[in-house]
Amino acid sequence: MQRHPLLASMPLLSVVLLTATLFSNIAAAQTVHTTDIQSIVDAAVKPLMAEYGIPGAVIGITLDGKQYFYQYGVSSITTGQSVTEHTLFEIGSISKTFTATLANYAQIEGKLLLTDMTSDYVPALKGSHFDEISLINLATHTVGDLPMQVPDKVTNNAELMDYLKHWQPSFAPGTHRNYANPSIGLLGMIAAQSLDKTFQQALEQTLFPQLGMTSSYIQVPSSKMADYAQGYNKQDMPVRVNPGVLADEAYGVKTTATDLLHFVEANMQMHPLAKPLQTALDETHTGYFDVGMMTQDMIWEHYSYPIDLEKILMGHTQEVVFGSTPVKPIVPPLAPQQNVWINKTGSTGGFAAYAAFIPAQKLGIVLLSNKNYPVPPRVTVGYQILTGIEKLQK
Is Iron given among the entry's keywords (predicted)? Predict the structure, then answer.
């Protein structure tokens, strides 16, 4: 092996000492870099946990292909078991991004067309407003003004079909954004059925294994219950998500920070995946509707980047989350972008979650906690951490 020309004339001992010094400096730089990230995360997360009385939280960060995990507190107040990156959390509506991925996957497999009408796949809805509501509308919260939750009176699939068949919207499909669990839940049901599986089977036997997510579930097996964090509501009472009609499809995933961060990386094309699945992930980032402050993709929401925190928070106000927002269709749909901030929040009665990533920078974050607390603070913390890490790179 030839020595570098600049080293060729140096005595061997000098070369050894210089090389050792260089490696020492590199190692020191990496240590400082890791310490700086820890400081940024601590400064953002510790006050958050204190303010909202959060028992446990874990933050996962991906930066240029390297992962960092930071754990705080306990997964159960009763047992005092520490949170780790392998603790199972409910991720609430972040589950919807898997539902959208499954629908794209089914389309690529030739099982459905997202431009088809909903009633084409659900005969019970023939002759209803779902004759004019496409699967894309189901995936973008643009069906009309369905309620956010499936009504309590709906306890089985037959009652669901009856409710949806008689539902009378106030808006035409594709004109307003109304965040609703029934619409994405219906899409998940259709996608799974097109693959001849239940939704649980479609995720646990098809999607999760292909994604390399080995600790993700709809139904947590008994062998993993010890890893399942106890959730706490705003009154600090222990709770876990209740089963219900379309609950699995809309907010039923339980996963770890390790698996969810792996999913974020897969969304940034950072893992070798079979083409059908990678394409399915990529297509969830297609922009279908201009909501004003943001672009509505298939469940994911994106903002042009760089962006101020205030503008991201505009997409997470009570009015946007719970109200009806006029939208403009993007024709043709906007192809997946790189210089964007892509995010999704998720909540159940006792858990809160957030995922965000910037494809152009291969930079992303997941925040998981076992207490339900407001959305704006978790979005703020995610923004503070990612932009703080950005500054370290400059």
Answer: no
Pairing, β 56-63 against β 363-369: antiparallel
- Write down the catalytic residue from 68, 70, 72, 179: 179
Per the annotation, the verdict on 179 as an active-site residue is yes
Q: Given CA atoms 108, 114, 116, 120 in this order, what sign does their dihedral have?
A: positive
**Would strands 301-304 and 295-296 be described as parallel, antiparallel, or unpaired?**
antiparallel
pTM of the model: 0.91
Q: What is the pLDDT of residue 283?
A: 98
- Round to whole Å and give the CA distance between 280 and 48: 35
3-state helix, strand, coil in the chain (%, to 5): 45, 20, 35
What tokens appear for 368 in the block? 């998981």
> Which residue has tokens 């020492």?
24
> Can you read off the two tokens belonging to residue 53?
């009385």
- Backbone phi, psi, residue 122, to 5°: -130, 90
Closest among 288, 328, 293 to 136, alpha carbons compared: 288
Q: How many of the other CB atoms lie within 10 Å of CB of 27?
A: 10
| Cα torsion through 295, 122, 251, 331, rounded to 10 | -10
Assigned architecture for domain 55-393 = 3-Layer(aba) Sandwich (3.40)
pLDDT exceeds cutoff 50 at 219 = yes
Average pLDDT in the 252-263 region?
A: 98
Cα–Cα dist 176/342, whole Å: 21
User: Is the pLDDT at 13 greater than 70, yes or no?
Assistant: no
Annotated catalytic residue: which of 93, 95, 183, 215? Answer: 93
